[in-house]
Each structure stands twice: as structure tokens, then as C-alpha cells.
Design goal:
Elements (H helix, E strand, L loop, with lengths): L13 H18 L6 H35 L7 H27 L1 H10 L7
Helix pairs in contact: 2-3, 2-4
Length: 124
């Protein structure tokens, strides 16, 4: 009998998901020279935008977990200044990823022009 999966249950262990994400990001970075046409660019940017937003949320949540662990004493074995610094770095990185997502979102109109000004046979 199949178990019902709650919405909050991750499909993969989070460490596996993060490793998969890193591998996919590397593939994207190395493979951008093989982008075919303007539509491909637009679709890739849309996915990267979504990814940046999710990275921002993930880092903010990790920051909250570290901060909570510090406040509740669950991470009492870790020196307090290190926990505070880690939480702040994670928070700042999350904010930076969010700003990156906002910047990507701003290029939407330019991407539309690119896609509508070329046809699918126009190779990049």
C-alpha cells in the first residue's frame, strides 16, 4: 500500500537535492555555449530565475534554523559568535540571491523582444 506523501515531505533528502542542484548548476555553466536559439535562452533564464528565488528562500530558512538553534540552546556546543556569524552570512547570501532573482526578473521584457525578433532557426 502506498503511503500518502504530505506536501511538506521532500521528494529527496535535502543533502541529495543540494548535491543534485550543484551538479545541474555546473552543467548549466559549462553548457551555455551549446544554447540553441533565443527561445532556449528565455526558457533557461526563467528556470534560473525560479532557482534563484528558491535559493534565496533556502538560505533564509537555513539562517533561521541556525539562529533558532542558537536561541534554544540546541546548538550550545558551538561557540555563540560563530553561530551568530553563520546565521548572518546565510541571511546575507539569501538576500543576495533574492536581489539576483529580482535582476533576472527585470530582463523579462528584453527576453520577450529577443524571442519575438528572431525565429527558431536563428542559432546563437
Amino acid at each position: 500500500m502506498r503511503r500518502a506523501v504530505a506536501v511538506d515531505d521532500p521528494a529527496l533528502p535535502l543533502t541529495i537535492a543540494a548535491a543534485h542542484f550543484a551538479a545541474c548548476a555546473e552543467e548549466l555553466a559549462d553548457g551555455t555555449r551549446d544554447v540553441g536559439n533565443a527561445t532556449d535562452v528565455s526558457e533557461i533564464v526563467e528556470h534560473l530565475l525560479s532557482g534563484q528565488r528558491n535559493i534565496s528562500r533556502a538560505l533564509a530558512r537555513l539562517s533561521g534554523l541556525v539562529r533558532s538553534g542558537h536561541e534554544t540552546g540546541r546548538l550550545a556546543a558551538v561557540p555563540s559568535p560563530d553561530l551568530v556569524a553563520l546565521a548572518e552570512v546565510l541571511r546575507a547570501a539569501g538576500s543576495a540571491a533574492g536581489y539576483s532573482a529580482e535582476a533576472l526578473a527585470e530582463c523579462g521584457p528584453a527576453l520577450d523582444v529577443l524571442v519575438h525578433s528572431t525565429d527558431e532557426d536563428t542559432r546563437l
